Structure formats: structure tokens, C-alpha cells
Automatic annotation (TrEMBL):
A GO biological process held by the record: phosphatidylinositol phosphate biosynthetic process
PANTHER family: INOSITOL MONOPHOSPHATASE (PTHR20854), INOSITOL-1-MONOPHOSPHATASE-RELATED (PTHR20854:SF4)
Keywords carried by this UniProt record: Hydrolase, Magnesium, Metal-binding
Protein name per its UniProtKB record: Inositol-1-monophosphatase
Amino-acid positions noted as binding Mg(2+) in the UniProt annotation, renumbered to this chain: E67, D85, L87, D88, D213
Record EC number: 3.1.3.25
High-level lineage: Bacteria, Pseudomonadati, Pseudomonadota, Betaproteobacteria, Rhodocyclales
């Protein structure tokens, strides 16, 4: 394992311990609302602090972009940047719905190189290194062999943050309910993407994501043989927050159903 990935795994497991401990005392959790449907707890913050402590200790000169504390001063000058979601699926966590994860990615000059997504509830560790494949707990993973959208199980998330997009989204959703085997909204984008990487889902789409929701999951899918794009079929997913992903065959069919529903606000 590349030394940076070893450090990222250590950081993710530390955060996992913080989150698992807190999950046994949900009744004393303080929840703050950042914006409608976007919550933060002291657990998100403690998990983020634990991750940053491990990364800073090993790589003090690296830049950091983290959901709860923003971009570090080093980010401007460093060729390396860590992209961190300390608790992806906060709403699930608050409700004791066991589908949430820690997501950590490392980019070099904007290119994703290392990825970790850790599900502390199931002790499932997803990792990927650019050019070296993707793994689930040391087992090599690949996207599913499904080729037809009709047979595909597709993951998604709702665009509540960018409500302008809701009509376009609902158009996609309506079409896809009729053209797929099923649609799931598990509630943690980093895990949804990792599930595409290991074949539990055959495709995924969401609008209005943040870089920390998808950085690690995107590399995971690419290293597992899947395809990822924005709604236009291009590579601007990190910039636009709109992402479509899937097995090589399902991806194209998914994009074909989604594209006619793009509007001025979703166009990217
Ligand atoms: C959220 C989850 C969710 C997605 C939201 C994200 P958070 O992340 O990934 O699945 O639909 O757009 O904000 O806020 O729980 O880290
Ligand atoms: Ca959040
Ligand atoms: Ca997130
Ligand atoms: Ca989060």
C-alpha cells in the first residue's frame, strides 16, 4: 500500500472509532442546522479533527479541503490536497440509520491519486490508488457485469441543496423508475459510489454534490473499471457537483435517459 494511503486509512479508522462510540449515545447528540436538510453535529467536527490530526502529523505541508473546517492555508501552495468528508450521511447518523461513512481522497495537482471510504458500522474499508485498482477489505473489486439498464439497480440522492434543479431531477427519476430494475436512495454519496465500484449498484446519479462527497468514490469507480462523468458526459463533475456513474454499458444508457432532462440550471 502506498504510504499516503496507509496514512489515510489510519485517519479514517480513527474517525470511525469516534463515530462508533458516539453512535451508542445518540440521545445526547447536539444537532445544528447549517441550511435546510443540512445538519452538523459535534461528531462530524470531532471526526474531522481526528482525521486532520493524523494527516497533518504525517504531511504538514499538504493542503486540506474539509467539509466542516474549509480549505487550509497550505492549499494555495501545495501540489497535494486532501479532500475530506468526516461523516458522509450525517442525517442517517443522527437517526441511527446505519448507512454513513468517512471519505478521504488525495489529489496531486488536481488529479485524484488515493481514496478511502470507510463504513464504521460494517467495518468495510474501500480503498483505491490511481493505476492500482480498487479494494474492499483487501479484496480486489470491480463494477458489476450488468449491461442492460433494464436489469440495473441505480443509486441516487435528492438535490435539496439546489432546489432549482428539482423539476429536472424529478423528470430523470420518473423516466428511470420505468427503465431500471430499481432506484435506491441510501443517503451517503461516498458509499453509493463505492457500492457501484464493488457491484452492489450498477449505476448512480446525483446533482449538487460537493467535492468531498465524491472525490474518493469517483476514483474508486474508475479503478474498478466503471465510468464517471457530469450530466453532459464530460469530466466537470467536481466543478459542477453533478455526477453520473456506472458500469461501462449501463453508464451510457443512464446518461441517455438523463440528458434530455437537463435544463439551463442543471446544464454543466
Ligand atoms: C450528504 C450525503 C447525501 C447526499 C447529500 C450530501 P453529508 O452528505 O452524501 O447522500 O445526497 O447531497 O450532502 O452532508 O451527510 O456529509
Ligand atoms: Ca453535511
Ligand atoms: Ca457528504
Ligand atoms: Ca459530511
Amino acid at each position: 500500500m502506498h504510504p499516503t494511503l496507509t496514512i489515510a486509512v489510519k485517519a479514517a479508522r480513527r474517525a470511525g472509532t469516534v463515530i462508533n462510540r458516539a453512535s451508542m449515545q445518540l440521545d445526547i447528540l447536539t444537532v445544528q442546522t447549517k441550511s435546510p436538510n443540512d445538519f452538523v453535529t459535534e461528531v462530524d467536527q470531532a471526526a474531522e479533527a481526528a482525521i486532520i490530526e493524523v494527516l497533518r502529523d504525517a504531511y504538514p505541508e499538504h493542503g486540506i479541503l474539509a467539509e466542516e473546517s474549509g480549505e487550509s492555508a497550505e492549499s494555495a501552495n501545495s501540489e497535494y490536497q486532501w479532500i475530506i468528508d468526516p461523516l458522509d450521511g450525517t442525517t442517517n447518523f443522527i437517526h441511527g440509520f446505519p448507512q454513513y461513512a468517512i471519505s478521504i481522497a488525495l489529489a496531486k495537482n488536481g488529479v485524484l491519486e488515493q481514496a478511502v471510504v470507510y463504513d464504521p458500522t460494517r467495518n468495510e474499508l474501500f480503498t483505491a490508488t490511481k493505476g492500482r485498482g480498487a479494494f474492499l477489505n483487501d479484496r480486489r473489486i470491480r463494477v458489476s457485469k450488468r449491461t442492460r439498464l433494464n436489469d440495473a439497480l441505480i443509486g441516487t440522492g435528492f438535490p435539496y441543496r439546489e432546489f432549482d434543479n428539482i423539476d429536472a431531477y424529478l423528470g430523470m427519476f420518473k423516466d428511470l423508475t420505468q427503465k431500471t430494475a430499481g432506484i435506491r436512495r441510501p443517503g451517503a454519496a461516498a458509499l453509493d459510489l463505492s457500492y457501484v465500484a464493488c457491484g452492489r449498484l450498477d449505476g448512480f446519479w446525483e446533482m449538487g454534490l460537493q467535492p468531498w462527497d465524491m472525490a474518493a468514490g469517483v476514483l474508486m469507480i474508475q479503478e474498478a473499471g466503471g465510468l464517471v462523468s457530469d450530466l453532459a458526459g464530460e469530466a466537470a463533475y467536481m466543478e459542477t457537483g453533478n455526477v453520473v456513474a456506472g458500469t461501462p454499458k449501463v453508464f451510457g444508457q443512464l446518461l441517455q435517459v438523463i440528458q434530455p432532462h437537463r435544463t439551463a440550471s442543471t446544464r454543466a
